[in-house]
Structures
1.
Amino acid sequence: MSSVPTNLLNNGAPAGAAGTSSPGTSPTFSPLYQQIKALITQSLQSGEWKPGELIPSEVELANRFKVSQGTVRKAIDELAAENLVVRRQGKGTFVATHHEARAQFRFLRLMPDAGDPHSADNKILDVKRLRAPAEVARQLDMKSGDSVIFIKRVQSFDGAPTIVEELWLPGLIFKGLTAERLIEYKGPMYGLFETEFGTRMIRATERIRAVAADAATAELLGVPAGAPLLSVERVSFTYGDKPVEVRRGLYLTDSHHYQNELS
Amino acid sequence: MSSVPTNLLNNGAPAGAAGTSSPGTSPTFSPLYQQIKALITQSLQSGEWKPGELIPSEVELANRFKVSQGTVRKAIDELAAENLVVRRQGKGTFVATHHEARAQFRFLRLMPDAGDPHSADNKILDVKRLRAPAEVARQLDMKSGDSVIFIKRVQSFDGAPTIVEELWLPGLIFKGLTAERLIEYKGPMYGLFETEFGTRMIRATERIRAVAADAATAELLGVPAGAPLLSVERVSFTYGDKPVEVRRGLYLTDSHHYQNELS
DNA sequence: TAGTGGTCTAGACCACTAT
DNA sequence: TAGTGGTCTAGACCACTAA
């Protein structure tokens, strides 16, 4: 069952050996802790340990992989830095989840100009299955015309509609996602994706521009057509850098701003 | 001269002692490596090691601070993660500098929609000394009316004017900054700040919005008044989280976008 | 009290760079 | 060849949590 997996680590065959035996064509040895990190990531990806759950202790993992605790520690350090995992002193290491206040703000950068961030009121306008447009297919690494789920929604803060957003999700992964499910679900959408569809968003890239509001969007946001809006186009990735969401948002930035840290 | 500084480390007085002697009012002990990190940061800040220079080796620092190499290592690991320092295997650890391609793109997120990033053509429109407006003074942690240097410039990519930017810098720190100096200087502005004024930008926060172009800016960018522009308001910080620059940019995002990574 | 992650040490060996 | 950062180990002790 959960027995020790067959480890293929180059523990007894240090990197130097590669240079001696087959210089130039060395099969890219990597440090032990990187291999451990990859093995742990595999277990996360396969669902052996689910979001929110406790993973085995450092000592146990060290025994399992036949390495020292320090090596496991360095592997987990990097996973924690990448937000795949959360350490808690005295308790253990947990698989990161979107069902936490912490994780929310990593993926919602729109902040009120004054006051504390608030939770959004979410209104689903449309959910349907359709064939992926060429551009979306390209971004999702699918073939043009493959089945995708399309969602359109409006988010309001303090009663004021602020974000109009369209989402495209791979139809195969999110099969069975319905408007009812989205509407009745409380909490962050990424939380639903994670618990209902086993797909956890790890990171995302965004392209931001200023655009003029089209008539339909303007009406939804209660602004004149042509008003300047922030266009945020996001591609989200899960384990293995696999793209699993395209999101195009139009943000009204009259009393909100997109907050970014350059560090 | 460069003798061993007086170390005030709680090496022999572990954190547990605080709980025993004065519980509740413990004077916040910190781990050794954090103290080492703070000491190294002080040396960076004071200019003991200048941008681009080699800092002492891990072994030497370990001897100087009377700790193990591993502890120094962990301190430097964090400094490297914060981009204050760059490690190079076999050579040593160097103080980070803005005179590198690497550092440029951390602070310039506007990318062409297609093609490689390019270097900007920089046109200085105005440089003058004035009294800080209230809002700028607040952001720079100065008193309203204190002297600041004001700069206005236009940046073009491939000959197309794309960014109109206004900067405010504390007059005391940047005394002697003239239009001539800015114009004749080749390379990134932060590089000039670092070498000529000893002030290195460490991190920055940005507030991004969509706004309509005013008449003057529209003319500079060659767009109609009212065209949507990306407004980027930046506050940059140097060592000790001290704000030393306010920058308000208006970006034309017709063929460029602001690129961001959520991770 | 037992188990967890967090800190610190000391030492070994490796890979890379320069001389 | 010497010196640097990079990896790995083994062991000690600490702080925190929960039973």
2.
Amino acid sequence: MPLLTEPKTATVEEIVGQLTEAVHEHRLQPGAKLREDEVCEIFGVSRTIVRQALRSMEFEGLLTIEKNRGAFVSKPTLKEAREVFQARALIEPSTARAAADRANAEDIVLLEHHIEQEHAALDRGEAGLALKLSGDFHLEIARMADQQTIEQFLRQLVSRSSLVIALYWRRRNALCESNAHHALVDALRKGDGDNAEELMKGHLLDIFSQLDLRERQEATTSLKDALRR
Amino acid sequence: MPLLTEPKTATVEEIVGQLTEAVHEHRLQPGAKLREDEVCEIFGVSRTIVRQALRSMEFEGLLTIEKNRGAFVSKPTLKEAREVFQARALIEPSTARAAADRANAEDIVLLEHHIEQEHAALDRGEAGLALKLSGDFHLEIARMADQQTIEQFLRQLVSRSSLVIALYWRRRNALCESNAHHALVDALRKGDGDNAEELMKGHLLDIFSQLDLRERQEATTSLKDALRR
DNA sequence: CAGGCAAAAATTGTATACAATCCGGATTCG
DNA sequence: CGAATCCGGATTGTATACAATTTTTGCCTG
């Protein structure tokens, strides 16, 4: 399995990239522990480098580092989950509008290619990959808007969205993706900012509505609790 | 002068806190270099700790670390400067609205106290301190809105705003601060979300308009270039 | 046999040693 | 005299050694 196998001496960025991808594609689930030595061996570097990588990912919100206990893939709470999508709802519509004003033919082709890959991944049953591509799609739009500061924030939000979806997505099977992205690209192609803004707003609401954000028991981490009736 | 003098063994957070404060108050100017050994001696810790602190501040956008060259207080470009205030204009008005809905008497007292300190600092001629307090004021409002994700982003934006102001503020002397904060607190006290939102929007535009964001020459760092006619 | 205690192993946190790179000044050559 | 080059010191980057903490394991006792 060519998963996280790098021969030797990777940079911090490469490690962050591969680990981030693994989390985005749900190959690493929320709660999973990343032992430093293990990561060291996989990438063939010293703990100095690995610790830098883990710390970066903590800043992104992807990992939570507990003192003296280690780095774990973050498990957003319900409140955090809501906040992530509230923040996206605040940021992304206006970003889509800006993108509509600036998108050129090249950008549109890129986005369409993105959607193709996304559908292909879904057809192959690779839901994790499709999810990551979907996130990248949103980031591409932010990039087109030429707002690096916002893009940087959105990167964090998309990362966290991936965690939220891992924890709170309703049906494990049907990962929708209707044709919201298609419609968005159409609006961008026409330079229709109003429509792009509205479509983005609706799209985010749609995703949000498919999350199960009701109060629930903390996932019982203790075997004892899990077995008592 | 009790500036950055800590006796011994500080934590990463303490170092980040003190250095951040120094940047926010313009005691450390954009472009200033932070040598690792120097910071080590000041705080009485090893480079391991200092490097963690510097890296944190790089993520906040406060420092820029150039490979093999060191950590410098960031110098936002014109584009970045504009983006920072565009992002704030996008985020803060709705945050002010949310704060108006949630603010209790205690919060209002806190904010008023904040404004007092700000004016006192201005009267004493401590413009840097006043600026930092002004940033904290905005962060307090975000905290009241109970949106930690947004608050986290705003923290970065306020940090960068401090750098932008250091670089692009028009008149070095009169650091305005009219009574915009007073008006905002009034709206919050009354729970008037609409007004709070509008006031915040106007306040940010006001700050933005006092920046000198025209294209300009890169400050010539070379004496030779400065002398040739 | 359950529960608690203690030692050992495993893991993370910090300091230090060593390697790589950069910077400034002196030297040499055109 | 000016420019390029090379060297030594200074500074940052990485690996490793050691300390502190947690987790596991095994033993002992009630």
